[in-house]
Amino acid sequence: MSLLVVGLSHRSAPVSVLERAALNADAQTKLLHDTVAAEPATEAALLATCNRIELYADVDKFHAGVAELSTLLAQHSGVGLEELTPYLYVHYEDRAVHHLFSVACGLDSMVVGEGQILGQIKDSLARAQDLHTAGKLLNDLFQQALRVGKRAHSETGIDRAGQSLVTFGLEQLAAGGDVQRWAAGRRALVIGAGSMSSLAAATLARAGVAEIVVANRTFDRAERLAEILQEADDNAVTARAVRMNAVPDELTRADVVVSCTGATGLVLTAESVAGAVEGRTGQPPVTEPVFTAVKPEAPQPAADENCPLDLAAAQPGFSVLGEAAVAGMDAATLEQHATWAAGGNTRPAGGRTTESAEVDAELITALAATAATVGRIPERRRPEPVAERPAPVVFLLDLAMPRDIDAAVHRLAGVRLVDIESLAEASADAPMAADVDQVRRIVSDEVAAFGAAMRAAHITPTVVALRTMAADVVAAEIARLHGRLPDLDDRQRGEIRQAVHRVVDKLLHAPTVRVKQLAAEPGGTGYADALRTLFDLDPETVASVSRAEDSTETKDRPA
User: What is the pLDDT of residue 386?
Assistant: First the structure.
């Protein structure tokens, strides 16, 4: 059997796709059950966070496993397989181990080095154990990933490079300023009472907000979180709980709103946020245009005949030659568009030359080559910066996936919204700590050690079965000797038995030690098969040893 992971994350897919592919708790449970019920997989675990969905499985066939896991992800996420496939990545065997260890250390996080992922990996393992979809391989893998992640944080300064997504989000709300100075005295509304919302509430309390209101669909959980905040010794915040139907009123009074729920629809619409701003300022907020107006010097199409773009539906503010105009096109359409642009179908304007149009055509051709590899050019929805934007009166942090707050809020003057998409954009420019290289070395060493241990463990049942067979042969021959020489006394029988056992042990010692060493090396999995063939070992005997080891592993597994 072999380890396989199929998934998508903020590194491979735009937030709009991650948002649609997000799985609620029931869908995650059903996905795990369906995965182990599928023919190629015997074990399964799911790592689902706000910016990644990864399905891990122990499979007996690579290509069939990739096809089955991809199909299951598409079915349970509701995103069509054809649309989802360009954003999926696949890791196999040691590369899959390397990927999970890197994730556990925070190297693959949106905020490099953040430690919250360790809790999410632990939760993923616990879910798979509760559902009985994790066997020996995934139990060993995820537990070792947790140890590797803890080692990286304890032995290096990766924490200096990393922080929680909550802290990073608050820094973005504060526009790079001091968070404590920005938060001091403000009133905060936290929507949700799960782990991320609780972390946000605690972080806000330590930052110095004056009041935190917690809203949750289960009122008891909101009350419990409010009590914890109120009783904490490291802050002086006033905390209270409200029901979800009180959110519109609380939104009018709140300076800072953090939302992270498991809702499948929007929790805060653009209209509700606009109403809250109007309630605070007495004036309805201005809705800013998504795109700037077309400049006179921008090249215009001389004619739309044969142009693959739907010019009537094109957003204003973009040249039909620009990258944003071709966002979302597949490779074939991009190539067609490049041919159209290069054919002189645009006329120079405002000082533009034919040569510059040819450069744009070359750019589109290059984009076509990119799309041929990744499937399509990702869509771009971020508005261009607007000059003299008024100072925000309401700050919103959306950490949910799918999003809780309508993205149209970005266009409201007087509001600053930070969501997963804007966090991903901001984190791309975040500085990397020098300790990242050290963590990468730790990951590489741990992957090699884990692979060697797994390969060595793979041959252990075969070695045990060989020694069991040898012991049975010795026992049978000793019994036959006793029948032929009945006059031997007990001392003589004992000496003969020990001598035969010593001979067998010495004959088997060097080969079994050496075969374990060879099996631990890359490509050494075939030695178990060779050993079974050479000594004609019963496959059922080997399998029974494996089952016994798995049973002991489960019984002795730490809580």
Answer: 45
Find the range with the poorest average confidence among 255-264, 381-390, 535-544: 381-390
Residue 338: CB atoms within 10 Å: 23
297 within 8 A of 351, measured Cβ to Cβ: yes
Token digits for 558? 């730490």
pLDDT in tens, 348-376: 433 444 555 565 566 666 666 666 665 55
Between CA 179 and CA 226 the distance in angstroms is 22
Peptide bond into 402 cis (omega under 30): yes
DSSP letter assigned to residue 246: G
List b or e across 114-149, with b for residues whose CB sees 16 or more CB atoms inside 10 angstroms: bbbbbebbbebbebbbebebbbbbbbbbbebbbebb
Average the pLDDT over 485-490 and give the result. Answer: 85
What's the pLDDT score for residue 6? 97
- CB count within 10 Å of CB 355 equals 8
Calpha distance 148→439 (Å, rounded): 10
pTM: 0.62
Instruction: Report the largest interatomic distance among the alpha carbons of the chain, rounded to a whole angstrom.
Output: 117
Cα distances from 547 to residues 468, 535, 551, in angstroms, run 16, 21, 6
Catalytic annotation present for 50: yes
Given the residues 50, 105, 260, 307, select the one marked as catalytic. Answer: 50
Alpha carbon separation from 152 to 140, 145, 155, 376, 435 (Å, rounded): 18, 11, 5, 36, 9
Q: Are 410 and 396 spatial neighbours (Cβ–Cβ below 8 Å)? A: no
Helix axes 435-484, 94-104, angle to 10 degrees: 130
Give the closest residue to 112 by CA, choosing from 165, 166, 154, 161. 161
Weakest mean pLDDT among 120-134, 297-311, 385-399, 492-506: 297-311
Q: What does residue 463 show for φ and ψ, rounded to 5 degrees?
A: -65, -45
Summarised one tens digit per residue, pLDDT across range 3-15 is 999 999 988 988 8
Q: Are 19 and 77 in contact (CB under 8 A)?
A: no
CB atoms near residue 112 (< 10 Å): 20
User: Could you give the CA distance from residue 392 to residue 189 in angstroms, rounded to a whole number?
Assistant: 16
- The CA distance from 398 to 417, in Å, is 8
Q: Report CA torsion sign: 484, 487, 489, 492.
A: negative
pLDDT > 70: percent of the chain: 73
